[in-house]
Automatic annotation (TrEMBL):
Coiled-coil boundaries: none
Family to which this protein belongs: Belongs to the LysR transcriptional regulatory family.
UniProt GO molecular function: DNA-binding transcription factor activity; sequence-specific DNA binding
Residues in HTH lysR-type domain copies: 20-77
InterPro entries: LysR-type_TF_proteobact-type, LysR_HTH_N, LysR_subst-bd, WH-like_DNA-bd_sf, WH_DNA-bd_sf
Pfam families: HTH_1, LysR_substrate
Organism from which the protein derives: Amaricoccus macauensis
Keywords: DNA-binding, Transcription, Transcription regulation
GO biological process, any: DNA-templated transcription
Annotated Gene3D superfamilies: 3.40.190.290, Winged helix-like DNA-binding domain superfamily/Winged helix DNA-binding domain
Protein name, UniProt field: DNA-binding transcriptional LysR family regulator
């Protein structure tokens, strides 16, 4: 690979001239994360021709092949893998320089990229972004929701990730936001029709809403003191989205196994009531996760601080205007 050339600048000092630009490296990262030029163009809203040009210019400058072209897309070569692993430090250094300049000002500005699992990101990310942007009007947001499986691949680009459960990547920094647990909930209409379960065994066979992740049904595992059981309702509705599942429960069509924060407002309105409230799931922790280099970025750290301080408020925000529902009358 050619060495960068040394040139004299206007002050007679030696500076470095590189045959590639930051835009070329950024395009390479986008293509590597997306798996193909077409996917990267769609995800990052950049023309395919532009990405192809930048990638070709970078490979020509480095004199190495970064990808192997295959029928289903692009696969990193060994050289490409090494380059991807190390070139992230370039943008981290740029972020550090920007952060140092921003610390000299009383306000923070720039863009924050926040990712979350689709299960609950819809619920809290909007509330968190609205609150933070109101206090910091020069901050812009890029909010993205992914399946848990996509998050665990490690190929998602973010400044901050909201994750419920235990993250597997130990190289990332984390801060605990709070904890969540599940319980059984039903509408008064459902209980009038089917009766109030007196024992956990009475739940078996009742119509229920079953959440599935990648085709795998979520188990209704509940604990009281030292006793743990798996309730087995009839799968009246199978869904892969919690908001849809809650709709069926509020309408009185089925029993639901739902997180406590997710039904807070419905409980206050009387649209839902807890069923066998002494039976609860194991507690699961929620974290804010971010790369170590972001720890020096003031806007990201301020956002993480806000998430930690206001987590309970954000996660219980309904995200819509609530009106007391008209419950159907029994015939």
């Amino acid at each position: 690979m050619d060495r960068p050339s040394r040139i004299l600048n206007g002050q007679g000092r030696v500076s470095m001239s590189y045959p590639y630009e930051l835009g070329d490296i950024n395009a390479f990262q986008q293509i590597a994360r997306a798996g193909s030029i077409s996917n990267a163009a769609a995800i990052y809203n950049v023309p395919k021709a532009t990405l192809s040009l930048y990638l070709r210019r970078l490979e020509d400058a480095l004199k190495v092949e970064l990808f192997v072209r295959k029928a289903r897309g692009l696969e990193l070569t060994d050289a490409g893998k090494e380059f991807l692993e190390n070139c992230g430090a370039i943008f981290d250094s740029c972020e550090t320089a920007v952060s140092a300049a921003q610390r000299a000002h009383s306000t923070i500005r720039g863009r924050i990229r926040v990712a979350s699992s689709a299960e609950f990101g819809t619920l809290m990310l909007g509330a968190a972004a609205l609150h933070f942007s109101a206090e910091n009007p020069e901050i812009d947001f890029d909010l993205q929701l992914y399946s848990t499986d996509q998050i665990l691949t490690g190929q998602i680009d973010y400044d901050c990730l909201i994750f419920i459960g235990e993250p597997s990547d130990s190289s990332l920094l984390r801060r605990k936001l709070g904890s969540v647990s599940y319980g059984l909930y039903a509408s008064p209409v459902f209980l009038r029709r089917h009766g109030v379960p007196a024992r956990i065994e009475d739940v078996d066979g009742l119509s229920g809403v079953i959440y599935s992740r990648n085709g795998t049904p979520e188990k209704w595992t509940l604990r009281q003191a030292s006793r743990a059981v798996e309730a087995r309702p009839h799968a009246k509705f199978n869904v892969n989205e919690y908001w849809m599942g809650k709709t069926f429960v509020v309408q009185g069509s089925a029993l639901g196994y739902l997180p406590d924060f997710f039904v807070q407002h419905e409980l206050e309105l009387g649209a839902l009531v807890p069923v066998l409230p002494e039976w609860r799931s194991e507690t699961t922790h929620a974290y804010a996760i971010y790369p170590a280099q972001r720890h020096r970025n003031p806007r990201i750290m301020k956002f993480v601080d806000t998430l930690c301080q206001r987590f309970d408020d954000f996660i219980r925000d309904p995200g819509y205007s609530l009106i007391r529902p008209r419950l159907a009358q029994e015939a």
